[in-house]
Amino acid sequence: MRALQIVSAGVLEVRDVPVPEIGPDEVLVKVAGAGLCHSDVHVLHSPEWPLPNMTLGHETAGHVAKLGNDVTGLAEGEAVLVYLVWACGVCRPCIEGRDNVCINAGGRDAMPPCPGLGPDGGMAEYIKVKARYLEPLGDLDPVTAGPLADAGLTPMHAINGARHRLTPGSTVAVIGVGGLGHMGLQILKATTGARIIAIDSSEQKLEIAREHGADETFLSDSDTAAKVLALTDGYGADAVFDFVGVQPTVDLATKIIAPDGALRFVGLGGGSFTYAADSLTSTIPWGVDVRRSYGGTRSDQRQVIELAKLGKISVETKQYSLEDGIQAFADLEAGIVPGRAILVP
Ligand SMILES: [Zn+2]
Ligand SMILES: [Zn+2]
């Protein structure tokens, strides 16, 4: 079969590899679509990426092609989504429903294995997955559903952890209306009564934000923080989701968060800020709680799928053939993909 692999740091190739053999508890999925994420670009350029010849792709949906001997509850031909977090399912956080911080499969500093960032992922004709990491998609189209596994899941998790601030009358800022941001915005619109401000450096992406229900949109420039503060009588946004995480967006996020606000860093852009325990020199107002967000729980994933089935959220996609995967990466890096790029084998 054909697969898009990292050959070595910085080098991608679409090449022939064997179709995976499945074990008794595994399922062979014929991939219908696999989304491209900035994390893929990040690992591609990691100077010491430790896993050469790995198939990328952690946003995968497709049809069940073959069932392992012990697998029940799934049928050949059924449309499925590959859940991102391959946790143990039995440790204390897992049984508490916090499988994205699994003890056994992740631990304090690592994260549980994720297909396409460790085990082979979905940018291929087939992927093998343990049956318990598959979510039935029902009538959703698996060609475009793959991004629900990350671009949908990750914002849902971040938003679910900030619901105490997303009350009617509150204001929320979404920084970055790319793959994750445009889904986060729709989830906020569908599940909260907050006023939504979308901020991006691209007018095209702000247009997408308006289509998906942003109440206010700002092109990011040196006045953005002042504009957000002006909209909120100088108080700031009750919740801020930074879906980019580069230094300018982190700076903006800390300047516009309100007292007692929920400050959430979701994008892995490498930005940082200084947190001073000494309140007199703090860069953020009183009471702000800051959270880095990784992936999401199985429950978050179900909620995303249900919202998609109801038509309340949808993935804006640009489709490429698997053979054009290297071009898709170039377009993503150039920032010219609206919504999510999807590879279709
Ligand atoms: Zn991702
Ligand atoms: Zn666990």
UniProtKB/TrEMBL annotation:
Ranges for domain Enoyl reductase (ER) come to 10-343
Query: One Pfam family this chain carries?
Result: ADH_N
Listed SUPFAM superfamilies: GroES-like, NAD(P)-binding Rossmann-fold domains
What GO molecular functions are on record for this protein? Answer: alcohol dehydrogenase (NAD+) activity; zinc ion binding
UniProt keywords, alphabetically: Metal-binding, Oxidoreductase, Zinc
Which co-factor is required?
Zn(2+)
What family does this belong to?
Answer: Belongs to the zinc-containing alcohol dehydrogenase family.
The identity of this protein, by name, is alcohol dehydrogenase
- Which organism is the protein's source? Mycetocola zhujimingii
* Organism taxonomic ancestry: Bacteria, Bacillati, Actinomycetota, Actinomycetes, Micrococcales
